[in-house]
Amino acid sequence: HRLIRRQRQMCIRDSASSEKKVVNYFEIDEANDDSIPGFQSLPKKSYTEMFHDEGSNVEDNPSYTALILATYISDILSQENIWLITELLVKSKGRMTKLWSIINHKGCQNERSPQLSIFLKIHESLLISRQTDYLNFIRSLPTLVDDILRHNNIPILFDFLLKLISTDKLECPTGIIDTVFDQNLIPKCLKHFNNEKYSSSIQTCITDFLKMLVEISSNIPMDDLNIGPNKLSRQLCSLNVVENLVHIILDQKGVALCNIVTIVIELIRKNNSDYDKLYSDRLFLDTERVVSS
Length: 293
Known about the structure:
This protein is an all-alpha fold. 64% of the residues lie in helices and 0% in strands. The protein contains 18 helices and no strands.
């Protein structure tokens, strides 16, 4: 609450527009919900029903009030002019652990979740504004991969994971690739290609992530996310993994087969000297064998 009062005073002092933003947070009604960051993309029905108690106004519900407060705090933490506050955050593993734990909130189950919006707003902002300290914290998370894969139906979280991985470039390594490699990211992703256990939407989410990983691992820079050949891309085209892909195609068929084939096609598209000269011959032989099978 002290943090909120202090930052609210700063916002009011900075500009009239900031003052209006603060007022909107606490004088909200259903007519102007769209003024709240994190709610713009949500259908009114989805979050109103979540916090509405029959016979009472939604604004009087403690859960709704707490969510508005949490959204306001996330808006504060995502501002650019709060170096002192972000310094206190990233230097405290306890505080950062609490912020990360939002991902495990019971309400963080789909892309329309307000809790997910809050989580991403805070963490993406810290990744940009306090990258070094923030990535030090990320590397210390023993459950980074498991926490993301637990939400295997939320593509936007895998986009966030790609942003973390893309910070680890050859000319400026951050150690994130080693972290997710040691936590078995690739083998755990491939376990999702099981038609009996995972739906087509979940498999598609994993497939899109792996295809993007292959894309950013190219030797030819496509955009700012490009990191070039790395441990993960080499593991994905290693003999053991390719043999696993063959088994999935032969054993699972159906949805899993289609998704694995799209991954193989992406690997073949990158199968040239510009992708990874050290592994290009192996990749050509292994992926050709997959297609032949």
